[in-house]
Each structure stands twice: as C-alpha cells, then as structure tokens.
Amino acid sequence: MRLSHFEALFVFALIVSTVFALITKNTPREQLRYGVFVFVSFLLVAFVVGWIMYPLPL
Amino acid sequence: MEKSDKELDSTASPELVRKPINLGTTLAICFAGWLVPGLSHIFLGKWIRGIIFAACVLLMFLLGLGMHGRLFDLMIEEPLQIFAFIANVGVGLPYVLAEKMGSGVGTMSAVTYDYGTTFLWVAGLLNYLIILDAFDVAQGRKP
What we know:
Number of domains of chain B: 1
Order of helices and strands of chain B: HHHHHHH
Largest sheet of chain B: none
Number of strands of chain A: 0
Low-confidence stretches of chain B: 1-12
Order of helices and strands of chain A: HH
Oligomer: heterodimer
Structural class of chain B: mainly alpha
Shape of chain A: elongated
Structural class of chain A: mainly alpha
Helix content of chain A: over 70%
Number of domains of chain A: 1
Strand content of chain B: under 5%
Radius of gyration of chain A: 14 Å
Distance between the termini of chain A: 27 Å
Mean pLDDT of chain A: 93
C-alpha cells in the first residue's frame, strides 16, 4: 500500500479526530463540532508547518 | 471560573450518569477492551461507540501494517524500544496475531515505513485512551 503524504495525513487526522471527539464530548452535536475542529486543525497545522519548512534547506 | 466536582455532580442529569460498577468487573471490562478494541464499550451497552472505536483502531492498525510499518518486541538489549513496544501492544489481540503471522517486520526501504510505524503506535495509544474512557463510564464518572 502506498499512500501519499497528504493521504496518510488525511486518514490519520480523520481517525484520531473521531476517537478524540467521542472520548471527550458527550452529546452528538458537541462530538461533531469538536471532531470537525480537530480534523481541520490537523490539516491546517500540517499545511502551515509545511510552508514554514519549505524554504529551509533540509 | 471552573466548577467543583460537587457542583458538576449536582448539575448533571441523573439519567446521564450510570451507577458505578464494582472495580473487579470494571477492570475485567477494561481488559476485554484491551484484548479487542471497542469491546469494553459494547459490554457497557454503548454499541455504536464501541463499533466506531473498533473500526478506527483496527483500520489504523491494518493501514500501518499495509504501509510496511514495524511492530516492536520487548527487547532487553534495546531498552529505549520499550516505549515503542508499550505503544504497539496497546492494540491487544491484533498485535499478538500479527506477530504470530510474521507481519510487522518493517521494511525500512519502503517510502511509507515511517508513516506505517507511526500508525501502528497511534493505534495502540488510541486504544489506551478508549480503555480509560470505558473505565470512567463504568465507574459512573461520565455518561
């Protein structure tokens, strides 16, 4: 199986945000809101960190 | 200002928080949840939550194996690997089965090796969190 970096990140964020939302919140509405927040945060932070690292000669 | 436990207890809806199960049974339920991810919530009557947890942990574990990730054993000569082992073994029975089947050897030359290994660690760590959640539910601390 060969997932791209973004595909792996997407699946990782989806699974982790689902579990976090179900564990930390009690009502379905709260779980949905928190799950979407965590999922979007994962993707946003990855993009921001990726762009910050872009000019670095690694 | 944060509310104290007493205030939270008084405001909690009585039908939301269950009566605590005795500690021995709670630990047995947690052990079942460690062996098979999500089983502890199913035993507590939270079917949907249990099935979602099982799907999440098992999917992450299988993806980790599919991406040529490595499962770590308990090795005395490599003491720092114990942390990786603790993370991996959190998945329970699937870890044992994968080890018996010779999966999870880890192909370092594979592009996805690091991703796969991380997926395998996180699958186990998520299951620890799920077990702790089941403990709290069984003890009546949360609905």
